[in-house]
Amino acid sequence: MKEDIPCRSMATAPSAIAYSPAHQPVPTPSPYSFSVATARWSSRPSIYSFILILRFLALLSSFVSALSLVAKDPSNFSNYSELVYCFIISILAFLSSAYHLFKGVFDIAYRGVLIPDMISDYISFTLDQLAGYLLISSSSIAIPVTQQMDRTATLWKAAVISICMSFATFVVIAICALLSGYKLCKRIM
């Protein structure tokens, strides 16, 4: 005898359920992770690699700015409150750049997310705006002090190097602020 096998309709087939819009996989949150469909990294440089290079440049220039003031004559440098302010702001810019660089490298290395992308975009935008403002204000405050110094002193040379590198850090962080603002606007819209 033949057994009656129930016939399934096409609407309840497992393949139709697997491809319905309700069962689509969630997109990967990290810009550094790759999907299984591509199975390889893109060969063209992305905006994220460019931002990492900029973050490294900001880290390097803020480190040189802070180091130039302290390395020459630390006892004479502390007599000028404007140069101390420039030093502190350079250290804060260094720490901000180190955080951003660490997060970017961590995301690439582990193809994951250290901090969720939405929160990270807000943090990046806020820190870039704050660091940019503080860097340009510290550079503008330190310029009149260097004009009053003796131009043959080693502290004068160190202050000029620090101001130039602080301004270079400002330019790099301003570009990063534009890019983080772009990413944030893209997320909002």
From TrEMBL:
Please give the GO cellular component terms listed in this UniProt entry. plasma membrane
Cell compartments where the protein resides: Cell membrane
Q: How does it sit in the membrane?
A: Multi-pass membrane protein
What region holds the Casparian strip membrane protein domain?
48-172
Q: Which PANTHER family match?
A: CASP-LIKE PROTEIN 4A4
Subunit structure, as described in the record: Homodimer and heterodimers.
Q: Which family does it belong to?
A: Belongs to the Casparian strip membrane proteins (CASP) family.
Q: What is this protein called?
A: CASP-like protein
Please tell me the species this chain comes from: Dillenia turbinata
